[in-house]
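dude i think i finally got it to work??
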Amino acid sequence: MKHFYIFCFALAWCLTTWAQPKKVACVGNSVTYGYTIENREQDCYPARLQQLLGNEYLVENFGKSGTTLLKRGHRPYVQQPEYQKALAFAGDIVVIHLGLNNTDPRNWPNYRDDFVKDYLELIASFRQANPKAEIYVCRMSPIFHWHPRFKSGTRDWYAQEQAIVEMIAAYAGTRLIDLQKELYSRPDLMPDALHPNAEGAGILARTVYSAITGDYGGLRMPETYSDNMVLQRNRPLPVSGTANAGGKVTVTLGKQKQTAVTGTDGKWTVTLNPMPAGGPYDLVIRTKEKTLVYRNVLVGEVWLCSGQSNMAFMLKDDATAQQEIPQADNARIRLFDKKGRWLTYAVEWDVSVLDSLNRLQYYTEASWQPCTSRSAAGFSAVAYYFGKMLADSLQVPVGLIHNAIGGSPAEAWIDRHTLEFEFPDILQNWRQNDLIQDWCRERASLNIKQSANKQQRHPYEPCYLYESGIAPLEAFPIREVIWYQGESNAHNMEAHAQLFPLLVKSWRETWHDNTLPFYYVQLSSIDRPSWTWFRDSQRKLMECVPHSGMAVSSDLGDSTNVHPIHKKEVGERLARWALNKTYGYDVLPSGPLFRSAEFKDGSAYLSFDYGEGMRAADGNEIRTFEIAETDGLFVPAHAEVTGGQLRVWSEEIKCPRYVRYGWQPFTRANLVNKDGLPASTFRTGKE
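look at this
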């Protein structure tokens, strides 16, 4: 009987112990507290976290608005009653989200040297309260560009803190939760640039929930993984996805088999050895609970084809569509076609559309498709002709990812961090910002007119297409990029001259490849006055953007149509750059590109790159050259090829100092090289 009572007591003690919920202490400032949230007690992130975790956990909110982590700051957290309550709570799990108020000019400039010490002491105090406590240190939720102190210090001090927080987590042996990432692309949820609304608090809660439980929704792969896909050949091949933390993932492709263990952040990556072109293969990705099988996978060359409407221009609308589409079946080419769900016509979008935009649900779902007459007809004409020439020349599979959006400006394709630090002015009040083309601003304002959210998203907004159309591709290896865009930035070539290199840099950082080739199309001809200068500015971008090349299209323009219908030549001119520079083929990549000028004996002698066999395309005189003296007053000039150079002169000009060519918005310029490739618009001298 004695043993029976002992057993019952022990059982009761165990049941009592097991019934005790695990205590979660949410330590922080106003974001943790739930400041600005209407139903704060129900919708702040700790309350939402309680709902997600259920009865096995007890979550308490120890947030205090306006507090700093710094002990000598203007309102130290450790001096608040909430801190003492958090210590007394002795949480089994402590989630610390502090530091936003350190960016106040009263704090960081004066006491930044205390940050590490104060943070480590805070962590130690919770470990003393409960030696078995799991401590989670958080990368801070975002502060957006319309915060009043953003450029005066907050932006830079915030970034410095974020880096130190990561170091603190590693040094102190705590877990790290990233509360910035999921909200960083959702400015619509941050009305005052600092505090998330109820939906934003829900995102924070889900992020913390996944970190605590390891539940990331099981095995999932990016959309770019589907049957019929093409994987990049001859390079180490990373395959990345998400799964529940700590789970084993096995990846099999052909004879290769690699495994990985999912990290505490739900991410995993295996790197397969380089593979030659070939296939088809099955790509199998397996966890204990789930298996994904992708069939008919090829290994070859993968290109991203992006920009605005002239890249989106479909093959079925091309000048050669009737001849090309019936013979478009090509087993080597695979197409991944992302299109916008709503075109930016002159209409007001419904409220349901606006909500989808804010959630970055702008693109249609896509999957890899074999190139057939049917799939090619609705695909980008430029990308199709580019891919066809590559496949024919290389004799390997070619995968083309297309995501161009009509009317989109360059700034929409650049990541937020890059613009925040290198071109922040373009982020400010973007629909009233003269740096952004008035047509883009007016069309966006009309499309989103029904929205009451001051931070309503739109595809033309700076960063938007990067966040919705480029970031989802970052885990998928590509070889290079072709780009056709500029019409929506031609109003300000000086701004574009800054934006385009930033765009290239942004994408190269996304794919961790500083030499990622970037081949782009120069704007064609149309009666828009700024386009002469803009085309020449595009030409000069090759000098400041390494590993780039420009395809000329001015000979294919239409005086009244911004969408010229001859896209085959454009795609093949881009392919020439790729064949020459990327693959080492002995083909001319371009028409004549101005290199230098020498003025003597009343003439200008011009030298060109890729000028072999210069001539007039139509067999007539070379035309549209103009020449000027130091006054810059240009007159029409004669031009002739002599000794591999071009001599330019006019009887009216005795001492020439400047030459320009194709300097008409809609030009009939006709200088080509031996392969019939046209020369670019150019102007000698400094502007």
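The longest strand covers residues 291-307.
im so relieved honestly
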